## 1
Amino acid sequence: MAITTDSDSSSVCRQCGYTAASGSDAWNRISAPPFGRITQCPECGSTDVTNRQ
Ligand SMILES: [Zn+2]
């Protein structure tokens, strides 16, 4: 049985190329008051993370 999801999106760090599922615990989340919570790469600490589908 394969696991399939309709929202098969992942996020990619544009600095080091780290890739993990969007919104997964693999990503760090930091508080940035104007934006709320933003995603941070656990590998290089960059917040330049983009979604890829
Ligand atoms: Zn990174």
Note: The longest strand covers residues 28-32.
## 2
Amino acid sequence: MTKSWFCLSHNVARIALLAGLTAAGTAWAQFTQSPLPYAYTALEPQIDAMTMELHYTRHHKSAVDGLNAQIKNYPELANMTIEQVLCQVSKYNTAVRNNGGNHYNHEIFWKVMAPAGQGGKPSEVLAAAIDKAFGSMEEMRKLFSAAAAGRFGSGWAWLVVTPDKKLAITSTPNQDNPLMDLPEIAVKGTPILGLDVWEHAYYLSYQNRRGDYIKHWWDVVNWNEVNRRYEEAMRQ
Ligand SMILES: [Fe+2]
């Protein structure tokens, strides 16, 4: 049921998009990286410029290249959104799972960050939902930070809207995420906030001090984008 719900909601969005693009005569492109919405230096000192550049131009790019390389094995991927791929990723091989997850996760990650002081604050509706789910904003931050700090090895921490429209905090290993239709994904939902806790995301500035990275990362959260993603997820 969960799988159907996710794929149905993403398919509806895709059909609308497909109709528009077909009318315009535009051919489908391969998966692409969205432009980074700020300069590599923009998140300093919380995240240094070299980390941002390497992370975006190498780590994320290699995932996009790796995903596009799988189109020869699965031609239908060329006509699918990344969300559609992930909500039925159990049909595909490990390369699609890893590169597709990697691509999607980073697309979210860049957008839910903004230079310190420019990210706004949680909207009234999101703040109320956070209070209801976790007791307070402070408690949500504690739980999210603990999920990020406690992820053994590499992975991600997430704030998600579950299929029954509730907020939940979870973490996933490696490049997995809560959209994936895999039995080992304990909490499924639509991510509205995600934190990369792979060492490549913080090692140059923080070395092994993941906790410091998490603490400073809150200063560059783009709440305006989290608010937008929350409202979109609630409409799905
Ligand atoms: Fe990363």
Note: The first helix runs from residue 2 to 24.
